[in-house]
Amino acid sequence: MAASSQGLDSFGKLCHSHLPPFYITLPFGNVYTYILALPFGSVNTQNGVDAMDFPTRLKKLRTDHHLTQKQVYEAIGMSSLGYQRYEYGERKPSFDMLIALADCFDVSIDYLVGRTDNPKINR
């Protein structure tokens, strides 16, 4: 199995992946198949600037607002374990939960997921 990132820098910026995409070469019989892999990672470089990943940003927003995990998960109507998994990076929120979290902290979804450092953009 081999991996490369040749010519994929612009694609990585286009799809806002957290790490640059790469191809994995897998042999199937006498034919090699290339599969595009878009990894989920903790580093998001957008416009050459390192941005926080979702779990880190979520925890920072919560602590900056002087809230406990319990206060947040009760405010958005979810379980404690589900919310903890967001902060630990073990689970990604649904679209509805992203909206609820953005509303709870009064920030944009783009800010919440690390696509911008401006919390009020598109609000």
- Cα-atom radius of gyration: 17 Å
Beta-sheet strand percentage? 15-25%
- H and E string: EHEEEEHHHHH
What CATH first level of the largest domain would be assigned?
Answer: Mainly Alpha
The structural domain count equals 2
Give the distance, in angstroms, between the N- and C-terminal Cα atoms: 44 Å
Helix content: 25-40%
State the strand order across the main sheet: 1-2-3
Summarize the helices and strands and which ones pair or pack.
Blueprint: E1 2-4, H1 9-14, E2 22-28, E3 31-37, E4 44-46, E5 49-51, H2 54-64, H3 69-76, H4 80-87, H5 95-105, H6 109-112
Helix pairs in contact: 3-4
Describe what you observe in this structure:
This protein has 123 residues and is an alpha+beta fold. The protein folds into two domains: 2-39, no CATH class; 50-112, lambda repressor-like DNA-binding domains (434 Repressor (Amino-terminal Domain), Orthogonal Bundle), CATH 1.10.260.40. The chain has six helices and five strands. α3 crosses α4 (80-87). The N and C termini lie far apart (44 Å).
How would you summarize what this structure contains?
With 123 residues, the chain is an alpha+beta fold.
Key words describing this protein structure:
alpha+beta; 434 Repressor (Amino-terminal Domain); 6 helices; 39% helix
